[in-house]
Amino acid sequence: VIIPVILAGGSGTRLWPLSRECHPKQLLPLVNDKTMLQNTLLRVQGLKGVSLPIVVCTEEHRFLVAEQVRAIGCAATIIIEPVGRDTAPAVAVAALEAVGQNEEAIILVLPADHVIDNEMNFAEAVARGVSFASHGQPVTFGIVPQSPHTGYGYIKKGSEISGAEPPVFAVDGFVEKPSLEKAREYLAEGYLWNSGMFLFPAAGFLATLKEFEPTMADCVARAYVARTHDLDFTRLDSLAFSESPANSVDYAVMERVRDTVVVPLDCSWSDVGSWEALWEIGEQDAQGNVFIGNVLAEGVSGCYIHAGDKLVAAIGLSNHIIVETKDALLVAAKDRTQEVKAIVKRLTLEK
Ligand code: GDD
Ligand code: MG
Predict the structure, then answer these.
(1) Distance of CA 293 to the CA centre of its chain
(2) Is 40 touching ligand 1 by the criterion CB < 6 Å?
(3) Which ligand is the nearest neighbour of the Cα of 19?
(4) C-alpha–C-alpha distance, residues 274 and 150, integer Å
(5) Which ligand does the CA of 153 lie closest to?
(6) Measuring CA to CA, how many Å separate 77 from each of 64, 232, 236?
(7) Spacing, Cα 24 to ligand 1 middle (Å)
(8) How confident is the model at residue 273 (pLDDT cuts 50, 70, 90)?
(9) Which end of the chain has less neighbouring CB within 10 Å, N or C?
């Protein structure tokens, strides 16, 4: 049985001022009328052999998450993290829950903030991955890259695994978020983008975590054993969980585990990590503009303009981002939207 695990606990600071602590990226409708979380849930619903998904999120977002699950007629096990400890502990609690449901369970870990255009390719890649994961192997999904993006991790392909058609590869290494220069090299050398999506036998994941992160494995296990049920939520023990070291699943497990295979996934994919990414995947007019809401423009090209409360008018601009919300306005050069993170950092420091 395949149990989807949806990671929905990130803060998504790069889409400020739309995404806020109370409304992070994965809980916003960014590309259609469904939120990123809802699109993720609907995507897994269409897969063969999957059972009820597990959503792992923070305390503050639990009601919003529950409401978004309900609104699309889905059901899910919702596990609440008392504090954020990055993605490795989040996956670990979901693996414990999955093993409790079925000792042979395979977890399909999916970040809640991805846009995938070709759902057929996605479903096929998952099915191919399952044939390896059901024999105990960790499987990652590598996106065929479109550009030397510096906001993603890269996977170096190793030797081709015989008999798989289309081809599947051994993993030769991971590189997390390289410099632009390095990213260009990797692109030329045929590396894949690390999608952050993977398949892992749940019991195998826990054994691997114990090997590489024994303290984390111990804290998470104690937090899970002492869990409580409150309404529809599973709440972890706060003291035990907060004692866990923080680490991402990439660093804690995926980069260290042996025998991983990578299934290349050739589809239009984005983790919408910036306003520029939203412009890229948005519906552009003949001048290359994406306008959302009430926007009036003259002589404007290559811009992304998001009007929230007010009418936004722009004249003679190119390659800019404008995002207007009730209490904040962002005006930025389109190629510098990664720096929104720095603004958010200043906001929290100067608050
Ligand atoms: N439950 C939970 N708890 N979820 C979390 C937490 C946490 O503490 N921290 C992050 N998440 C969720 C986010 O909501 C997101 O869906 C996912 O985990 C990945 O976290 P990000 O913070 O968005 O990671 P990233 O985008 O910087 O990098 C990762 O994803 C890229 C692809 O989107 C890495 O795996 C990169 O290598 C990869 O390219
Ligand atoms: Mg991300």
Answers:
(1) 26
(2) no
(3) 1
(4) 12
(5) 1
(6) 14, 8, 13
(7) 12
(8) confident
(9) C
Reading the block at residue 187, the tokens are: 């692109």
Q: What is the ipTM of this complex?
A: 0.98
Distance 232 CA to ligand 1 centre (A): 24
pLDDT of residue 351: 66
> Which residues have CB less than 5 Å away from ligand 2 (the ion)?
271
Ligand 2 centroid to residue 86 C-alpha, Å = 12
Structure tokens at 161: 């695994």
Same domain, residue pair 138 and 114? yes
Q: Which two tokens stand for residue 57?
A: 């999120």
Q: Is 142 in the pocket of ligand 1 (CB under 6 A)?
A: no
Output the CA–CA distances (angstroms, integers) from residue 10 to 81, 148, 178, 208, 243, in the order listed.
11, 24, 21, 24, 19
- Tell whether 329 and 247 lie within a shared domain: no
The rounded Å distance from CA 87 to ligand 1 centre is 7
How many Å apart are CA 286 and CA 302, to the nearest integer?
9
Ligand 1 atom having least distance to the Cα of 194: 39
**Domain-ending residue, one of 210, 241, 270:** 270
Residue nearest to atom 12 of ligand 1 (CA): 10
Percent of the chain clearing pLDDT 90 (strictly above):
83
Domain boundary, last residue among 238, 255, 270: 270
